[in-house]
## 1
Amino acid sequence: MTGVCCYTSFTYAYLGRARTLLVTLREAHPDWTVCAVVIDEPPPGEPNAELLAGFDVVLRLDDLSIPRARAWLFKHDIVEACTAVKAAAMLHLMEAGYATIIYLDPDIAVFHPLDNILAALDHAAIVLTPHQTSPNRNFRVMQDNELASLRFGAYNLGIIAVRNNGLGRSFAEWWAAQLHRACYDDTATGLFTDQRYIDLVPGLFDGVMIMRDPGCNVASWNLSTRRLAIGADGGIRVNDAPLRFMHFTKINSVGDVMIDRYAGDSIEVFELWSWYRRQVAREQPTTIAEDYWHYGAFSNGVTIPREIRLLYRESRDHRAAFDNPFDANGPFYAWLSQVQETPLTVDAMSAPRSG
Amino acid sequence: MSIALVRGIRSTRPGFAELMQTQAAANADTSLSVAAASDDISIRAQVAPEFDAAYYLECNEDVRLSSMDPFEHFLLHGAAELRNPNAWFDIGFYVRNNADVVDADVNPFWHYLTRGKREGRRPARQHQAERATLAQARPPIDRWVGAPPDDAHRHTLNTLRDLVADQLSHTSGLTLSVSHDRYTHSVGGVQILVSDEQMAFNRRNETYLHIAPAAARLMLVCPGQAGVGREQFLIHLTIDGIYSGLTSYDDLIQVFAELAPDMPRVRRFVVHCLLGHQVDPLIVLYSSLRLAAAVFWINDYEAICVGYNLLRNNVAFCGGPPAGSLACRICIYGDDRQDHLAQLGRLFSAVPFHVVAPSHAALAVWCAAARLPHVSVQVHEYAMVRCTAVRHSLIGATQRGTPDNPVRIAFVGYATPNKGWPAFAQIAAAISGLDCYRLFHFTAMPTEAPLPGVEVVLTKVGPNTRGAMIDALVAASIDLVLVLSTWPETFCLVAYEAVASGADVIALPESGNVADMVLASGRGLVLSDTASVVEFFTSEAAVKYVRMCGDQGSPMGHLESRGMTATLVIPDAPLGVAPDAPPAMAAPTAA
């Protein structure tokens, strides 16, 4: 087994982000294989090959050996779907023979090379990055950060790096089983997509390395303790360590508020934020709407409300009876049309989609 | 105020945070409503010291026109309507970022003073001005800045040949000067300097032929580049300060070739600014003059980056890191810098340049960051202040800083971020309630968003009105000019004009030659940051400083050009001509 494969999972609405990751990753590691896991179908008239040019490997839902893939996918909203396939894709890439597999979220950009991650995998099988690596003293800041980690997971799954050895495969198989069973945004039951499971990993598996390098996974949830600076040499540093990668979570929404709150007096954070916006705008095809997701709608274009996904997810009978619930000409849609108080029209079904 | 009142010093001042730590935090019941809060005597007492009535009235015309007390209005209506109580508390920002304050339904300003500050909450968005600049920042390729005038005369090859031949028939020297615009038609530092240079040569009966791109751009231009049309091959021609019309690089090259035998012995090729030009025709033009060397002026830092102020993303001085660095990757100039430097590399490889900086500060930046071949480097200042009088307590300096006789503070020049306009705006807001100050903005054209409480004085400096700014500053009896540039100014005529008018200059440490001039001349203060400048004024230390200046007296006079290239001395390497041509550079004249 040789080589490093870095993969990311996204839909076409996030193509600009994923392409930004691709471009920055290529700068830092031109020799890595970069894989796109695309849980989407392109809008009519948009050729897949052009949209995904530059990625070395493209995996789609049907490549991931998921039984009854459409029925399984229907249970997930867009964020759940993109995270639920991460472990299956990791197993697929292990089967393909890569020695090291690194997952990065599409809204990450790489700056300095990730050599420290690779070095860590010389001795460890799994590398995780905690949301916070130094404590906040102010309770209000804790509420936004540490207490949020208690709900959503201590480790940020924007990155996970795994060695393709016995320990690594053992972990990946366990993780894939959990995500296949339940990868849901359901903090009431102790789940948050793929992330809460990982809190168990340091206890369940040997060979886990907790990466506390302040230059890794810099994001709104740890900016309160990380100081970003750009030197005369043109390097970008965080608490005196090279900025390896930054996670631009929820840009244009709550991420902006958090940056406002925790960037401190660092204009450099805002420069990076501003650069990322420009970069994504440049890389995102203007022909793809920002809320586009092929699997966000039935085959006739009617948006799938979250409550119908939940209905399907929670009913074993429904799941057993309806093999392709996306099909607007199929029995599930027909049944829904009969039982719904409100007719299934585009207007009636256009509730905002989660994620 | 702990600042030492000594002119021409670098001062370390406490920051804005310390300034804010004046209001004791107190526990408060956040269940109080706005209305209830307004009735609570202790809450009034807590809010009142930080409420700026003058600022509130300035910003709220309806309150100003009503008979209502501004503080009462704020407590009863303004807070709920998200009207700011002073210049430093952004009530809308506070509410947007603190949902619990909204839920508690309390006066947000009172919440901040009594709890939020202690809890580390922010009173306003950080870097408001810089973030506004960031939001507007665009790569230079997206910023077309001008097209040739429709009615400009277009020379034919014949009319151009006749024109140049006529000039050459009665001149003792020829300088071909290159800059980014028609220096006789626009107002600015480089334009004034080029004009000074032209007049210096004309006084020696030498011809000054100036070219500028017909379509102004903020970057070098290549054939085939996106957006480059036919007009980009046209250039403006100005001869001895008189605009002659449009021609092309190719026609000028051909005319120079045809008239080579008639060229005067003394010839020069001088570059002041390359933006908007094409490198290859400039190399051919230089060759057609058959010179041994040329002059390149560091009027800005275009030789280091297409972002010629070296302000990364227009907000932070970068020093010109290696092209391709991460800093360049995230900068709006980064994408164009590599190509820009490649073109400059071609020019500097083909043309042996003597590089001239107007200040040691500019030279230091060049030496640290420029990677271009050159023959020599030296400092040659643009101008000097020739003092002819002393400004002494002209209007009762000891009483300066009273409502009847306020300290006069000025911002001079265009209201741009790189010249410190956002910092000036911050200061203007902070001292809007203090009647010991009066604020002015001296500019050639009005700003789109004039600052409340700042008097605009339209003043245009041109070739024939070189002293206009000094005269205007003297007429308004300006005491202090704020030059709050956050990058190393190569020279900054404004700072010298301020001193020539008898005013002192307030500068920041990173302002290059401005800070150097202040420290060397003892005519002003270099304060550590904008917050320190704000405090210098809000604490009224500025009043004491101006009174001290009045007592000590301030030399004043006029600005004297040092002649630019006309007085340049090139040690051991005269700007001669190529071996097969007669000598080109006249004996240098000492400054």
## 2
Amino acid sequence: MIAAWVAATAAIGLALAAALAALGAARIPSLLRRLALPLFGLVGVAAATAGTLTLLGGGVDDIQLPLGLPWLPWRLRLDALAGCFLTLIGLLTAAVGIYAPGYVRGFEQGRDSLAMLGAGSGLFLAGMLTVVLAADAMLFMVAWELMSLASYFLVVFHHDQPASRRAAFLYLLMAHVGGLAILLGFGVLAAFGHGFEFAALRAAPLTPGWATLAFALALLGFGMKAGLVPLHAWLPEAHPAAPSHISALMSGVMLKVAVYGFIRFTFDLLGEVHWQWGVATLALGSVSALYGVLMALLQNDLKRLLAWSSVENMGILFIALGLALIFLGEGHAGLGALALVAALLHAGNHALFKGLLFLGAGAILHSTHERDLEQMGGLLRRMPWTGLFFLIGCLAIAGLPPLNGFVSEWLTFQAALQSWQLDSGVLRSLIPVAAAVLALTSALAAAGFVRVYGIAFLGRARSRHVRRARPESRGMRLGQGLLAAGCVAAGLLPTPLIGVVAAVPEQLLGTGLPQATARGWLWLTPIAPEVASYSAPALALALAVAMAVAAWALRRGALRRVRRGDPWDCGFGPLTTRMQYSATAFAQPVRRVFAPLFAVDAGVELEAPGRLRYRVVIGDRLWKLLYAPFATATDGAARRVARLQSGNVRRYLGWTLATLLVLLWIIT
Amino acid sequence: MRKVKARLQNRRGAPVVQPLRDLRKLFVKEVRVAHGASPLFRAAPYVVFGATLLAAASVPLLGVTLPTATFADIVVVAGLLALARFFLALAAMDVGTAFGGMGASRELLIAALAEPAMLMAVFTLAMTAHSTNLASIVAYQLDDALALRPSYLFALGALCLVAIAETGRIPVDNPATHLELTMIHEAMLLEYSGRHLALMEWAAQIKLALYAALILNIFLPWGIAETLGAPALGIGLVAILLKLAGLGGALAVVETVLAKMRLFRAPAFLNLALLFGLLGLLSHVMLEVGR
């Protein structure tokens, strides 16, 4: 345990040191690349070490810091849940630390402030690590706000672009509304528990009504940070606006910190759970998954697409969490543990593959200065390594065996299929519907990522700067390779991984998953071998053997020869790159089938005589439905209040006097 | 099946082994690859073939107990088919012709709509048998004697519709079309030739057989071998051949009677499948509780 504490504190210390070192980048721009970002790599290694040691050690340990308010010292705690998320943050941070030096090099000649970028990301990391370690509500909130504020400065990094500023403002606003909800949620617990330490909150005697209120506030606050629909509006704006390695951290890790908060609050602090909460979580998760993937399918901006896909994956995660809550509320602790493990595994998997995809998008952006899919094409030839790693990421995120995304979705399906054990008929028919939504989501995600990969990396380049893309630097390649290797490893060896992660439900719920790993590392049997079994290593081996045999059998002798020819052009002469299927065209059938869900503005415009232009703008219908009324109402109220501000000093003095009189009247 | 179809269309038709002959011929033909095709284009047929073969290997055909059935359950089979489809669609987009992208886009739409319907049908079975292992489901069906359950009928309907859509048969897609704009599956194979094409075609045929075996052995499991002895397997072989012939004949009739529908009618077709799946599930929950 001592070693884990040393590593964990070293991680936070190193993150703060990196932030300090980056301040020097205001003078010497290369300082960020040469000192601060390698420090990030070390932060990652330290955090991952601390997390792994905690998970493997299996103990729980509290310490009290000599910091904080006199009557409210700050406390830290290391347990399996914290260890799990520390490992996840560490792995992605290490990869980003290796990747980023090559990426930020392009900013050194720019006008953007590198010191702000480095210091912001250092504080951001320190904040996230502290949130995971915090063992009292006050430190948790301080670290949470540090994380939110620091990431605001990262989102607004390209502050000369109006879109970035708008995104950052929206992010700041929603982060604070969410933070307020979390604070109120803690407040409910603290009022009953008479203290802010987690131990006191855990012991709080709550009536079901107050517990439900606290849960609703937590779902609102953490759900807002996690980007659940309809609280998602900031996410697809803010994630693409930040530099790519920060997008990877925000999507891969910060959303997971929100998930951590939700799990800590609901499964650990609230005590007894009710199945109705699970239904609410399940519903929110299903809606997010489906809406996220459909919006992702229609986006043409690569980074925005990935951000929408994060909404989808958070949805999948919350489906699993909802299942866990339902099973726990109905008294099936073992199944609750299964669903919770599925959620944790998906959190880790999403961190790996979404981090990988954002880094890949960053590599493309770095090489071609292009985020628009319609301009890309044929990048596999120019950037073969990024192409390979991106393919692995796409396969993983599409939930295809034998990679890691499939494992967590499979576990979620298995948990959903155990709904026959529940007593209530409503739940028994509701859960499979959620499973069908999950199936639709994963199939649409596969379609979406075929589209991304097919348009960006295959085919022929659709613009000149993409045709001349430079290959990525070695560090960028290595950072992506690390994450891709993580995806493959987690996909091929899920059983040992689950054995380790099962320590979390063991500590939180009192039951682990002994049956899942009962049959050795080769077999994954979440409930019982005759109910469902999956063997990723055997599957991968069989697949490789089948492919190798087919290739060997067909490539003997004179058949080896392959002749090159022109593709089929219907006899009309050579094809141009503009004749390829475009990203918009690829998504058109989906757009048409699910038309009522989108706010699509499409039409043909006459630009100049004889020049037609096809225009498609995909809007977020929920924005118009839910957010726009708020915005107009706030604007209207502000305008009415603004009438007070006439610029006349005498009138201001009059208002001050009147306020004073009213206050005096109230006091007496 | 083509033979039955030809008969129904007043033709004599090619012999039954003609598809195999076609494959053999394609295997010895030279491969032509388009300029500008990436390595992925040449690797994809092997992935597609391998994944489909593996999926088929996990579906009980002759006997209930299969060595391969334990490492993949029905969800994994669906996943393997999705993997095959993923690479098929990527390969289609690789050369950069319009047809490939069009085929990929349409195929993935249909697959995306078919997947929930298929899983709903499967879940109905899995909830009854309390297992997603195909072997366990089939064994449960055999033990359960002849109980005509409403949920099964709905699930059967859903699975049949999904199978038609997924394997690209009329009325969703036409495997024999020669007009590029009406193609879905064939449009994706347009650039393939020689052994690559043979592998892709073979994979498509395996997929058809897979769905047929799935439907037959789950809903009509009689005759399947419960032990791995030679006589039992022999009976299983005869039984499955008879059943396959019956199903093939039925499919041929359907293909002859119906016309191919417009692409944008396909979602309605698949929604019907989803509805069947949902109804099956609900009738299971409402009518068959406590079994």
## 3
Amino acid sequence: MAPITNEQELQKTEFRWAMIVTGAVTVLFAVIGISSFVMALHPPSHVESIDPATVSQSKEFAESNLGTSVDPDGAVTVRIIATQFAFVPRCIPVPQGKPVTIRVTSPDVIHGFLIAGTNANTMVVPGYVAEVRTVFGTAGDHLMPCHEFCGLGHSEMWALVRVVPQAQWQTDADGKARCDISR
Amino acid sequence: MNFGLGEFMSNFDRSSDSPPPGDTLDPITDAALEDVLKTVPQGAFALAGAAMGLLVLAWLAVYVFIFLARGPIS
Amino acid sequence: MTYRADRLILAHFGVAFAAFALAILLGAWQMTVRSGLEPAFTSPEAYFASVTAHGTIMGYVMPTLFIMGFGYFVSVTTLDRPLPSLRLAWAGFWLVIVGVAMALPAVFSGKATVLYTFYPPLTGSVFYYLGLVLVVVGSWFWVGLMIWAMAGWKKDNPGKPVPLAMYGNVANAFLWLWTTVGVAVELLFQVIPASLGWTQTIDIGLARTLFAWTLHPIVYFWLLPAYIVFYTIAPRAAGGRLYSDMMGRLSFLLLVLYSLPVGMHHLFMDPEHGTGFKFLQMMLTVLVTVPTLLTIFTIGASMEIAGRLRGGKGLFGWIGALPWDRPMVLATCLSFVLLGFGGFGGIINMSYGMNAMIHNTSWVTAHFHLIYGGTVVIMYFAIAYEFWPKLVGREPLSLKPIRLQLWMWAIGMVVTTFPWHILGLEGQPRRVATFDYTNPMIAHWQNWTIVSMIGGYILLTSGLLFVWNLLTLYRGAEADRQMHYAVAVYPPHRVPSALNGFDLCNGLVLFLMLMAYGYPVAQFFFIKDYPALVHRVDLGN
């Protein structure tokens, strides 16, 4: 590099650095952009509203309909209510290596969950049905804590996700899976 | 994508013959400054470049080996 | 420096650091609870009240007061003219004090256990929210005074460049004004009416979006004094020159522009927004790394000038030649290292889909503690060590305890936050009081949590040593009370008006905010959504 003898030359070095920064930032854009548009990786962003006052009377989130169900076409959907201070149901079986859609809502305050060791993660906001789509690769039990402060009992609000190898995966006649029968 | 940097730069007054405004406590002589500006900013390029390179590599490693390895999300 | 505002500035700094000492004590206790060691007073009520107090002080009280005091100091010393109105400055200070006096008792009595993010529909005592509003309104007095001070100087000095430190200071005043709009609207129109019992429901999607508006740029409001010092004080402390005055101005401008329209990256995991605006704000968030990446080069080059002037040779030899014994130099270098770690966590958080990997885990807590504690507060320490002697006219007795304090703070930050990164990747949620470590699935978390607790006590010790260092200063020898700022290699004679004022900047911010938040906020007024019932935390539901 030539020695700096005037302001113009000094600014040239800064301009050169700005180009390097542009390169680094372009790498971030490219990786995120490609995985988003080509691999369809997004944060869960399904927007669907629901009246929190009548969640339990709704057809979808009635108590008998909660938990894991397999449709006739094989699609796996998990329905959960997050409420102060528990998830219903507390144990959620899912098949290993198959696409799973998790639909959650809250009748009271803001909750959230993550499934440890996986990318499954969402806020659960009263007034909305949060939907998370993922594939569980690792068989075994995964903890599912509530991850947003929801009141003084928040620390006790944990569920369990049981990822069942496909060979052991079973459902009952209605297409429902439960932790006790899937094992 | 240069965030308008070039344009800002061209707007600058480039004359810089006059000495820095009177600051009697500034002990740096023009000769000494001129001398170090023969090498500056090579060290800054190396340091900032290494730091930013490591940062991008570490980010890429986490992206590929932890995030993508944990499966799809949408 | 003919004009002074020493008592005003000391009042701001004094209250800020007193509150800070209390908050780090709470932080260390919280980590002890999380570690499962069951210290005295362990209960969910005490834990979450403590988290609320820690966040409220560290987020709203300490930095706001510190930055106000910092701004007054910079204004008086760089412009060499009195503050436009000392009376209004004191009025702003007392508004903040009254606000704190309203909010903190509500928190400590357990009537406002909603955490500093107060996500409704959880709703606490109205005194908490009104207190916070007063803190913000008091800080608006400061905003007005800083803008007024610069305008007055410019009128008397037509065509001259505003001193860089003051330019950055006023950039922060405008940044803060824009930042507070979101939370002010949320508090005044949603949360306070609910907490007074006037409304029974709250639109949660709107409340979260308005809060996100504030929650990201507030971090840049805390950060800007550190950047101002990097550019205008650290190069001189190191015995060198500022490499480029222009890059300072450009960085401050870009920080204001790109820290504002990005808060929705806090809502990546939220169900009230679709992918479109999340993706847009992700892109803008990537751009907010640019001013920081530009800064590390310019400050690196400034330090290189100093190191080489002191005889440093070779590609990296100048680093060792820097005067590491000077607190300002040491703090600046430590701050940059911790900014690297914190920035690493941050670019992972903002990476759109990857946010799902760590959202609301201890990883996030690690990230913002590194940025806030590691990058920002360590520079607040350095600023206090630099300004305090000039405010009280006393030299420190010895630099040794000052260096020890700074090193302890940096090491404490690393020991506290590195385990949180690991735990976060393993799925440990933040904001949980106690864990069932008898569960074999998480038993191994306890060791890492205890390590980070030890880091917390190192931080506590360092923080108390900081207060001790300031107190012992009063026994020192008489000090030179003149403040000197760094000189640029090529001092500016004339700068384009875009980099000497904020008209263009504010216009661009308005445009970016309308683009980034226009639809996301407006949608709540025309989509079919349902509000949630208010849940009182202070009345036992």
## 4
Amino acid sequence: MTTIDVAEQVMPGKADVLLHASIPTGWKRVRMHKLMVNATLGVLGIVFLLPLIWLVDSAFNTHATASLGAPALSLANFRAALAAGAGGAIKNSLYLAVVSTLIATAVSTLAAYTLSRRRVPFKSTLLLGVLFLTGLPVTLLLIPTYEIFVHLGWANSPFYTSLVLAATSVPFAVWLLKNFIDQVPKEFEEAAAIEGTTEMRILWKIVIPLSLPGILVAAILTFINSWGAFLIPLVLDANPGNTPGAVGIYQFMSANGTVQFGPLAAYGILFSLPVVVLYLVCSRWLNGGFAFAGGVKG
Amino acid sequence: MTALGGSSDVGLDRPQRRADKERFKFTTFVWLSPAGILLIALFLVPTAYAIYLGFTNLQLLGPHASSFSFTGLANLDRMVHDSVFWSSVKLTLVFVIGSGIIAQTLLGMALALLGQRAHISIRATVGSIVILAWVLPEIAVAFIWYAFGQSGGMLSEIIGKPSDDLLSTVPLLIVCVANAWRGTAFSMLILSAGLRNVPEEVDEAAQLEGAGYWRRLFRITLPIMRPTIMTNMILITIGTISDFTLIYAMTQGGPGNETAILPVYMYIEAFQFNALGYGTAIALSLIVIGGLLSIFYIRQLKPELGKAS
């Protein structure tokens, strides 16, 4: 029971008066301290917010500059961004993100379940190898993959580019999902196995539903990663019709002599909105994933 | 984890379970193969191929584009005498350590600690803003800070010199600030989660003994969180060391290679100066640097690992 509760009981409705009459001297310092903490955090928040405010302000302002201007409400910048090909580029990003997420999530779930439940020869070596791959910079893969793709005629194909994006996400997804499935109790699977259910059905009807939060985290992280992909499509796909949003914005930035801040800001918002919405909708599961990562001791 | 799961298995039905576990099923191989094929074809083969290409004279166009050959240590020799390469190594270290490890850890820790004691509504609002900066695609972040660093941009107006083009006077600082702004959320999330795992009893006991806030922070909270902080640093290093989009979109490595960290320098050498072989060698050097940093972190972590076992 807090002091306020006690005060409310003694003198209903006048707790505040009662409290102020009996505040010990230390209390003022505690309150001052609380104020300082909240104020500092608030200032940090404003510093972090400023660039975002500029982006939104410039997107709706036809006379947008590199600094904040008087807010205006015009959709002209969005029309200019769409005229510069934002729509098609975002569709291309959607293709890369959806295809790579579906592939990466499916193969990672299957592998993670097998590594979690089955006897696999050299399992710890395999897991260590997967962990090693998560730390390998993607930059290293770029030139050899480009060479291989040119030789096999896989370059300039959104599907093969998605495959590369999927492969770069698989090591982390396998690692995350294996740890997640390890936490799911085995009793349901064992009961189903005794009743003669096939393992594919067990995976589909029991394991996947029970580990859905983990699968969603892996899928969302893959999606966000592929959505923003820049270097891999820049190198592997030179076909202008396949340009994804990130490359499109870059080309728009360096296209004309003067940078068109307004249309670019609008382009940036159009391109950012899908992942921001996705994050907001799914943030509950994602934060759970972080609690998990933060709990890793060493 | 396996040890924990195993202990519950030691029951009456142990022999039966064991028999079940020992059997290797052919389908195990089938189920692992989609991920296996993808990783082998698009991760392991390119990695092995990179190690070879790094020692060749492969070109993007020209005579050595299709008929390239093994050139021994020629690329390594060129690298050792390449002053741009060494300045690129230095820039990479400044970028990773300055904007990644120091700025993101300090800001993330500050936000986590303040959030722990602040009012829930302020914590939630500020947390969402910081996370929003992190969720934005990297290219959007690059564009925002590209605008902010220009003459007449927000940053130059804040410091009171609106005509300064900060992207050409202090380009490295601007890309570091941009990267810190973008990456802090990750540290904040990991460190907040770590902070929740610090047992309250220890802190309360110290408080009863009369230890002040800062003393408790440095003597109790931070030492307990050391493994989490180290894990966080490793993850930041992995994320930052291969960063390309942010810097390339903001500066293309310029002006005059002043922001050409290794991935950017690799791209410039390979796809602008035609030298795919040398570019691969630069990418390989990135692995060496990443490896050296990892060894450093693992050494730092060792005391905890030793205690745990």
